[in-house]
Amino acid sequence: MKLVLASNNAGKLQELQVLFAPLGVELVRQSTLGVSEAEEPFRTFVENALAKARHASAATGLPAIADDAGLCVEAFGGLPGVDTAHYATRFGYEKGDANNVRALLEQMAGIDDRRAALVSTLVALRSADDPEPLIAIGRAAGEITRAPIGDNGFGFDPVMFLPSFGQTFAQLPPETKNAHSHRGQAARAMLALMRERWS
Known about the structure:
Layout: E1 2-5, H1 10-20, E2 26-29, H2 45-60, E3 64-73, H3 97-107, E4 115-125, E5 134-144, E6 160-162, E7 167-168, H4 174-180, H5 182-197
Parallel strand pairs: 1-2, 1-3
Antiparallel strand pairs: 3-4, 4-5, 5-6, 6-7
C-alpha cells in the first residue's frame, strides 16, 4: 500500500519508513508529489494531524498519514505543544532544531521541575472524506537536561532524558529509540489499527 506522508520532515520520514516496513506500507513524502504544506491553525495535535492528512489525501487522491508531534513541558502548562517546531522564533531565533533546544534551555534555566513529554499523534485516512480516521497517540515522558547530550536523532532528542535508560534519546541507538519513542509508540499503535481496520 502506498501512503502519502503529510510532512516534509526528513527525520520523520526516515523513522516512520522503518516503523511501517513490516506492514508493506510505502511512505511517499508529500513534497515528492508536489503537495504543499497544510495550514495548522489548531491548538491540539489531533486536529492539526487530521488537517494535514486531509490536505495530502485531497491533493493526491491517495490514502494519507500525518504526524503532529511536539514537546509538552510540565512547568509551562504543556507548552510549547503544537508550537514546538517554531518554538525558537518566539525568542528571536531562527526556526531550527538547534535554536529550539537553545531557547528551551534558556527558558528553563531557573526551573527545577524538568518533567516533560514528547507526544506524537498519527492520523491516517483512506481518503480525504474518510469519516473514520485512524488515530494513534504515543507519549514518551522524561526530563529536560541542562545541556544537550548525544549526537543521534533530531529535534529535542539531545535534551530529553529518559530515566529508565539513564540517557537522552540522542544517546540511544536508532533501533532502541524507535522502540521507545513517542513516534515509535504511535506507529506501533497505528500499525495495529491498520491491520485491524484496513486489511
